[in-house]
Design brief:
The chain is mainly α. About 50% of the residues lie in helices and about 10% in strands. The radius of gyration is 14 Å and the shape is elongated. The protein starts with a helix and ends with a helix.
C-alpha cells in the first residue's frame, strides 16, 4: 500500500534516520524510483567532545533537505 501511495502521489524523496537500518527505505526507493536521504533527529545523546554537535547535526539536516528539494 505504501508503494502504491508513493507512486500515485509523486513523492520523489524518502527520509530515513541514521540511527536505524535503512533497508526498508531503500527497498521502497528501488520500487518507486525515489531517493533516500537522511535526517538526524539528534535524540541519541551521542557523546562527543564537540560542543556544537547539535548545530552540526541540524546543518547536515538542512543540507539533506536542500539536496532533496533541489532534485525535486
Amino acid at each position: 500500500a505504501t508503494i502504491e501511495k508513493i507512486k500515485k502521489s509523486g513523492v520523489r524523496a524518502i527520509f530515513a534516520e541514521p540511527q536505524y537500518a535503512d533497508k526498508a527505505a531503500r527497498a521502497i526507493a528501488a520500487q518507486t524510483g525515489t531517493k533516500v536521504y537522511n535526517l538526524d533527529p539528534v535524540v541519541t545523546g551521542e557523546n562527543t567532545p564537540n560542543l556544537d554537535g547539535y548545530l552540526l547535526a541540524m546543518d547536515a539536516n538542512l543540507k539533506s533537505l536542500l539536496e532533496a528539494l533541489k532534485n525535486e
